[in-house]
Request: fold
Amino acid sequence: MEVDIGKLNTILNKYGGDKSYILAMFQDIQKEYRYLPKDTLKYICDKLNIPFSKGYEVATFYKAISLKPRGKHTIHVCLGTACHLRGGPNILDSFERVLNVKKGDTTGDGMFTLESVNCLGACALAPLVKVDEKDFGKTTSVTVNKIISEFKDGE
Ligand code: FES
Reply:
């Protein structure tokens, strides 16, 4: 992974090189790369003069930050109570099977990251799946294929 030092310096300067903004810096880097590459984490820690272990601790504590490459699209399968009762686990199984990844992983082509969540706040649409910002309500294993095709075709 080629790291753009210029971009990292711009992010550092945006927060005045203030270490209390380290999480915001990580979020900005993640917007650029869709994850936080280890080299960028190391660079920021060096520049802020904090130990790598400390930066790593911050990066791994917050779920919003990923140290693993993420897919272009994130699929969230809801496993909250309503969705769980209406077949959410089967929907998750279908995605795992069709995409050939486990929950938390990213497909080899870098297209999708598969995750589960606890209640997306629209239980009437259970079982609910959210891909990026788009909701898919009352999903079945048949719609799983449609959802994947929709996002693949949109490329
Ligand atoms: S439980 Fe799935 S949206 Fe609430």
